[in-house]
UniProtKB/TrEMBL annotation:
Pathway: Amino-acid biosynthesis; L-histidine biosynthesis; L-histidine from 5-phospho-alpha-D-ribose 1-diphosphate: step 7/9
GO BP: L-histidine biosynthetic process
GO molecular function, one term: histidinol-phosphate transaminase activity
Protein name: Histidinol-phosphate aminotransferase
NCBIfam families linked: hisC
Top EC class for this record: transferase
Enzyme Commission identifier(s): 2.6.1.9
Pfam family, one: Aminotran_1_2
Required co-factors: pyridoxal 5'-phosphate
Keywords per UniProt: Amino-acid biosynthesis, Aminotransferase, Histidine biosynthesis, Pyridoxal phosphate, Transferase
Sites of N6-(pyridoxal phosphate)lysine modification: 222
Amino-acid biosynthesis in keyword set: yes
Amino acid sequence: MELRDLSDHVEYRAGRGIEEVARELGRDPSEFVKLSSNENPHGPSPKAADAIRAAASEVHRYPKAVHADLTAKVADRWDVTDEQVWLANGGDGALDYLARAMLDPDDTVLVPSPGFTYYGMSARFHHGDVAEYPVAERDGEFALDAESVLSAYDGERVVYLTSPHNPTGARFTLDAVRDIADGVDDALVVVDEAYGEFADGPSAVELLDERDDIAVLRTFSKAYGLAGVRLGYALVPESWADAYARVQTPFAASAVACEAGLAAMDDDAHVEQTVESVEWGREYVHDELDAQTYESHGNFVLANVGDAEAVTEAAKREGVLIRDCSSFGLPECVRVTIGTREETERAVAVLNEVLDA
């Protein structure tokens, strides 16, 4: 028995964990700080943590009621109908649902390069193909605009826009999103706003009232600190009312995840603390790091350090884990997640020592 041809498929490579690195180096995990995976350094909302513990005794039951409760709460948050909320096992699960709803075999999607690997992975899982548009540095910044997307567009069925963009931190304006949607033909424009809480601009959800060719992705992994429970969602056009039931897996988000999400949405203070911490940290890195940095609207900063692999390895030996962006096609750059004040200050100090060596 042979597998299908997977030669065009690529592997998603997550940042390595502290325990894994500590074992490799024969060190104590407490010596390290992890700023390589864009996680929330303040942890989950305390209310969400309490909800997770409380949910443990009920995990023998399917999450039908709590799934509906969270759907309604998200719909109310964004002023959309319940049918427009597609809960999923993380944002990547929502990407799979959109691919199931949109792609026929051999349809092509248009993705950013560099960008989130799973856009293309999901398309290929569903027997689609992948084309790319460049996210290029111009005049010391990375540009996300309609022209760069539409110049590459060639009839693709789905166009992915990451805003804010990982790993550069740049974002699309709403006018650019609107121009892209106007410039494509019978295509869905997916705006991935996984880092949306950290951005200073409006959400593309505002466009759902006026268009039926845009979907927006959101996640509980970043600002809400729930990466480990895997909870995300898509917000889709109102005309797609009956599609979710046809493309979702049964009970698309677990009972534990849904309970955590409900509680987290009631803890505005935790999100505000996280966002304020990120705003301070981005400014600190821009001001204090002895390397070129790029404007960021996410919870991380991209820096040009010359040799990303060497700098990442040297920082790791000093107990600071950052992301080598060579896998994104940026071998000169590292991505530094904003941690707590202590973690961020330590990371900048270590990187400056490494760069000065």
